[in-house]
Amino acid sequence: MNSDKTNHGFLLAELIRRDFIKKYKRTTFGILWSALSPLLLLLTMDLVFGTFFGRNMPHYTIYLFCGLLLFNYFSSATRSAMRVLYDNAPIYSKVPVPKYYFLISHSSAQFIDFLVSLLVFFIFVAIDGISFHWRFLYLLYPIACLFFINYGIGMFLSTLYIFFRDVNYLWPVITRVIMYASAIFYDVSILPGIMRRLLNCNPLYMCIDYFRQLIIHSTVPSPSFHLVLACMAAFCMLVGGFTYRICRDKIALYV
Amino acid sequence: MEDNKVLVLDNLSVRYRKANSRATADIVKRIFKKSSRSDEFWALRNVSFSLEKGDMLGVIGKNGAGKSTMMKAISGTLSPASGTIEKEGRICALLELGAGFDREMTVKENVYLRGAFMGYSKEFIDSKYDEIIDFADMREFQNNPFRTLSSGMKSRIAFAIASMVEPDIIILDEIFAVGDGDFRQKSQQRMQEIIASGDTTALMVSHSLQTVRAQCNKVLWLDKGRMVMFGDPKTVCDAYSEYLNTGVLPETQSLKATEKNPKNLLKKSRGKLFAEVAVYFMLLLAAVLGCFVWAQYDLLKSYVLARNLSSEQITEIAGNYHSQIDQLLGADTSRWDYSIFEEGAQRIINEEASYTDIAKEVLLQAGDMSRDQYKKALAAAEIEAIKHCYTARLDALVQEMRAEFEAQPEGKYRSLMVYSYLNCDRFYALEEDCENDLQEVIEDIRSMQRKGGLPEELADQVWNAYKSEKIYLLSYYCIMLR
Fold first, then answer.
1. Which one of A4, B163, B251, B333 is most buried, counting C-beta atoms within 10 A?
2. Largest alpha-carbon pair distance within chain A?
3. Which residue is closest to A1 within chain B, CA to CA?
4. CB B482 within 8 A of CB B392
5. Contact in structure between B60 and B237 (CB atoms under 8 Å)
6. B5-90+165-264 — its CATH code?
7. What are the extents of the domains in chain B?
8. Cβ–Cβ contact A24 with B under 8 A
């Protein structure tokens, strides 16, 4: 059995490769879509909301892009993660392989996708006249947290999807709510105090806020902010892991 | 594990849920009925046997006897409901050849992926790749997407990958039913080679008694998930063909030992599972608690801060910041919620709350603040409270107080209050002009106190405010006295 364990790295690499290739298989632009889709969305939203909110806010485009970038990553990662366990059922019901490998590889492929968008984002940051600073390295922290948040939620949804297909219809609605609760295109100061407090319970908003504070205002959020973000990521991972662990053995009987 | 034993099954049972039973319905049933046994279906019950190295086991039985389920459980893709499987070495399972490949990817990519699933390294597959492709005879198709292959081709490539190394345990689930004659011969020959080496233990599902008799040295007979017989090919196969003719099951030891619901064997592993779940649950709770505490952290902090302050301390703090008021009003207070000032002022006027209460609320709203900021907030809150009183009730008050001032000299201190409303942010100018009026106000207050009409504590506070020339403090005491 030991020989089986030694090569799991290669298996993971192959799976990530597969997931990433499959995403843009048979498209003309291929990986360029990772950069193009947020750009197109940004263009539209900047045109629509820029006139409303952009007037009295400096760097509104970057403000918007921060939100869009992270929200896109979140929504596409969680939404496609939902089907992972279901779609790969023909494989793991024939070949004994830990099922969470598919989840890990899916998350990683989505993450690579996100990194491409991030590159475009930094090009925009440069164009907008924001100078780069070593403190930008702090961004690795919210990115890592968001990865784990997405992984945890993906694990949760994917497991749930096996048993309740209703998730397929429910999750897009929840995603929409999360979108409005993430202050992507509006300024938080238009909200009353209690709403702002609620907004801070949204991990996605916290990540977006982290990006904005660091890039636009070049301030590093407080240690408690970091701690909470870590707590939330841990929470998502635990919920996902918990659900997966409980249902793991039953999945093969339901697919 | 005992010597030479490669595979040991002990009371293996596998349970399915019946088709069409939905998870939601299951849960509801379990809540109301405690258990939903009627939905359960035991695909395997109390199957126990062991194989030694080099054994070749034939599994026979009618359709739906649990043969494939057992193979899945042994290969590890299904987890048993109870019982244990001990196995040693690399298992290679050929269950439904051709299934589990990715349709969109090319044959070559699929070979690497499948190899990875089976736990091989990249170098190993690199070295074996040509051999696999040649064996499956598919060199010209290697860059075609998998979906374009015929089903025969799919099984060929699957078999070629699966048989490229000599596994310790090989599981063959009716795989020779597909492929053309040529390939079938080739694959059977390959199988023979693997088995003949003597290191491999094979498990084979077959409906052909002839094949079983010829190739196996042990046979397992399953019927409706129960183990009917396990032993040498001759005895079992003879009994099986007799059963096929007569339709009567022989009464064997193992059939009698089969329980109806083999449930009590899971205790050990269930305990372990519960422990694991409990740990998860506790971590989850801790995380939830952490999130909750943080979400309310600002609130808790300022609450504690505000609660520990006595009214004297608040007064003192406010007094110290007398000179900073103008500056503060110029400062950025946009992050505060102004409605609280307005409401607070209104409540002071309506005598629903004391100034201290409102100050606390303002502080709670302002959230995360240092002590210094807190003091500033307090001072600004005071000013705001007064200002909003002014905007809310100004006109009426001015009229009312002016009239009162004309009519009765003892209403003088009230008119002062109106002035202070009007001029609270230009109070310094007023200060000198009203020196005498203020003294009269204080006298009024003291006389009221002597008559028992005023709380002693409040009178003292007003007196202290007057003595230290904190006129804006006086103005809000006036609000309270009105």
1. B163
2. 64
3. B89
4. no
5. yes
6. 3.40.50.300
7. 5-90+165-264, 297-481
8. no
